[in-house]
Amino acid sequence: MDELKSYIINSKVSKRRISAEIRDGNNSPYPKRNLFVKLRQYSIDFLKHRQEPRMIALAGLRGVGKTTLLWQTAEEMSKIGYSHIYFINGNDLNTLNHHLYDTFQIFEEEIFGKKFFEIDHPVVFLIDEVHDVRDWDLHLKILYDKCKQAFVLITGSSALLLHNSADLSSRMTITKVFPFRYAEFVLSSCWIKKKRLLFAKKGLGSKLREILFYSETIDVLSSGLTSLRLHINDYLNEVSWELGIGSKSQQPLIDEYVSYHNIARFLPLQNKEIINDRIIALFERILLKDLPVLEEGIRPETLFRLLMRLALSDEVNYQSLSRDFGREKEIEHFIDLLDKAEILNVFLPHGGTKSKTGKNIKPFFMSPSLRRALYAKIYGNELKDDLRARLYEDIIAMYLRRLFDPGMTGFGFQENGSKPDFIVETRNKPIVLEVGVGKATNKQIREYQDKRYGIVINAKISDFSVKEDCIFMPLSWFLLL
User: Fold this and answer.
1) Fewer Cβ neighbours under 10 Å: the N or C end of the chain?
2) Nearest to 140 by CA among 159, 156, 120
3) Per mean pLDDT, which range of 13-17, 131-135, 143-147, 473-477 is the poorest?
């Protein structure tokens, strides 16, 4: 207990500690992501006005930047003059063989000198890797109920935060942290290389979303894209100039982003083999450590073999997988676990209840870098267009998951008919999407019945065009959403 007491006494955060945590090895502050704006507002609303939410969890794939966001939020609280901020690392508590209940008792006895319910000023707890502490959800519930002055910001694995916290379901606000958007990758890359923050025109992404998914007709969609063309091209040309890719084509930069640099942790690394090795280590950490906490009896080697199969597959069904991986129900459960851990990003067939409860699914990877690392084990560094196209599908799937509720997205599935890559449910009729390296046909979209219009996302074009009820648009444009 003395070791824990010493740890807690030294847990108060100083401005110097915050400054160190939000800077890279060259002492330059990390750029702030869009999500930071929401976290800053949550913290200010509570500290100044005691408004909910006051317990926020940052959940996402390992390495996407949750801890950096936590410290950037701490900096914002420090800027407005607030100093009662304490940092706890779940792995440290686990090493000390203590849980949060012991920790909070020491805070009452040694730090505050009073019970939590007696505290009359705000106190901030930053808890990193909270899922490493046993019974974390029960003990955070106790803190939440006892201390109305506590603002709690935690980070953790998606699998364990989202699906193992029934005690906190009505108290904790879960905020998903996704891999980088393309604009966030550009922002961070430009800062690393030039110490310059490069932004697109304010509101460009939201306007593009409104035009792509909420236009009444294909003509309205075309007109809207025309109105944004100049702003989009100005930004992309500036990106090419600042990042020195030597041409107006974004393709080399997009391939770098898609294959290796959409996960924040790997952005400083340029060696592709090292990135792939670290992603394999990330798989091992999740399969060997995170998922066994969620469920006993996990077989990591089986899950890894399944991931290799899924990386090489497009649409799959449980019956075909059962020949190599066991019973259909067991495979369905395995894929559900990988989806909860945000290794996979599973899409169901578009349609009613019957189609969604069928046996066909499309398991994308939450980050295409995960699939790319598995490809490297089989194909090395060079990929043919059909394999690159699957990486592009992964990134589009991640964008759609970020933009829409899961129930609004799916993949096309018509018996003996068209099977486009994605369907987005909007008012009146759905929008149909196809993705490819140099896709020049709209056959899948044309044959899909009962749609508003289609969008073909092509990695090799630099401007949009209209063909029948379909827009062909550059991948570089779509990635600005």
Assistant:
1) N
2) 156
3) 131-135
3-state SS assignment for residue 245: coil
Whole-structure pTM over 0.90, yes or no? yes
168 and 232 in one domain? no
71 and 219 in a single domain? The answer is no
Q: Is 91 helix (H, G, I), strand (E, B) or coil?
A: helix
Alpha carbon distance 437, 396 (integer Å) = 13
Structural domain includes residue 363: yes
The whole-number pLDDT of residue 353 equals: 47
The tokens for 232 are: 């989009």
How far, in Å, CA of 287 to CA of 303, rounded? 7
What DSSP string describes 435-448? EESS----HHHHT-
Q: Are residues 289 and 369 in the same domain?
A: yes
pLDDT digits (tens, 9 = 90+) for 404-437: 998 899 998 766 566 889 999 987 899 999 998 8
Same domain assignment for residues 386 and 422: yes
Domain count of the chain?
Answer: 2
Domain membership of residue 169 as a residue range? 2-176
**What is residue 112's three-state secondary structure?**
helix
Structural domain includes residue 181: no
Cis bond upstream, residue 300 (ω within 30)? no
